[in-house]
Design a protein that fits this description.
By secondary structure, the chain is of the alpha/beta class. 38% of the residues lie in helices and 21% in strands. The protein has helices at residues 20-31, 54-70, 84-95, 117-125, 151-161, 195-201, 216-245, 258-269, 291-299; strands at residues 6-7, 11-15, 39-46, 74-81, 99-103, 130-133, 142-146, 173-174, 182-189, 249-255, 273-277, 303-307. The chain is globular and about 70 Å long.
């Protein structure tokens, strides 16, 4: 990525509870080249039965505010009483931040669960982009952007690239990322159909299943055409990022179960951050979060930014 990239101003809502993961979120935000007008509002929420911990939460918020301030960020904090997820979502509906940031697990998470209940509800029901940060945080060096050609994927691409900041400019104000981040753009082709898969999905039952076609040439041509479409989608996305925001990205084309392939790639390539839309091409209309996005948020070993389509 070029040092001449234009970074946009962000109004950020940080859900903070003093946990290891929310402290990791502070470190991540401190690494972002946020513009001078950017602001971080930290919100700590206490359950009514925990109101006696007011002084502890207030102290934690003050320390976090100091940490952000030392990084040159304009930060303030608020403390609320109620259900944490509900209060964070209500606050976001009122403040309309550009980004909500939450730690993957809170202080009260259950051992062995990849995602805490508060973060899960925020990413499911908030209308704004949600960045779920996982500890330990080791910086953002490798970023993976996932696309399947859906409107939701394009929303995520646009969020990374940014809107054009003036009619006279061909450059966008992109999401602020540390210098030197290596960006990959991935498309996952669907897995090859098998007799077992057809038997499970055939509408009149496996006993009436027609024989699998044996035309290997037709199958090869079909696979080649599918691969061609995947490469074209990646090429278009890479070109868009380059032309709009001067972002250099490397295309990655895989085949298989989308969530499985993405999660495996994240582990093997040591990806630090993944950006994805909230729903893919095959998602049911009306679902708040698609199955692939949900699996990424729950099981990816890195931080995940989910960008939702705007409606209305």
């Amino acid at each position: 990525m070029s040092s001449t990239n234009l970074h946009r101003t962000l109004q950020i809502l940080l859900a903070f509870d003093g946990s290891e993961h929310s402290l990791a979120a502070i470190k991540l935000l401190s690494d972002l080249p946020l513009k001078g007008q950017s602001k971080v509002t930290m919100v700590g929420v206490l359950l009514p039965r925990e109101s006696s911990n007011h002084a502890v939460m207030e102290s934690a918020l003050e320390q976090a505010e100091k940490m952000l301030g030392e990084s040159g960020l304009d930060a303030r904090s608020e403390m609320l009483l109620g259900n944490p997820a509900e209060k964070i979502i209500e606050f976001a509906e009122s403040a309309q931040p550009d980004l909500i940031v939450a730690g993957a697990k809170g202080l009260r998470h259950t051992l062995g669960i990849f995602l805490g209940g508060v973060a899960q509800q925020i990413v499911e029901y908030a209308q704004q982009p949600v960045l779920v940060v996982r500890a330990p945080y080791r910086g953002i060096k490798r970023l993976l952007l996932v696309t399947d050609g859906s409107p939701s994927s394009q929303t995520a691409i646009d969020y990374l690239a940014g809107a054009r900041h003036s009619q006279d400019s061909q450059q966008c104000e992109q999401f602020p990322l540390p210098a030197g981040v290596k960006i990959y753009v991935m498309n996952v082709l669907p897995p090859l159909p098998s007799p077992e898969m057809l038997a499970r999905t055939w509408p009149i039952g496996p006993d009436m299943l027609p024989p699998m076609p044996l035309d290997k040439q037709a199958e090869t041509e079909w696979l080649q055409e599918e691969e061609k479409r995947g490469k074209a989608l990646l090429s278009q996305t890479v070109e868009y990022l380059s032309n709009c925001a001067r972002i250099t990205a490397t295309p990655v084309l895989l085949r298989g179960d989308a969530a499985t392939e993405i999660i495996q790639y994240i582990r093997e390539e040591e990806i630090d951050l993944i950006i994805a839309g909230s729903r893919g091409l095959s998602e049911v209309r009306g679902w708040l979060l698609g199955s692939v996005s949900r699996k990424l948020v729950h099981y990816a070993s890195c931080s995940v930014l989910v960008v939702k389509e705007k409606h209305g």
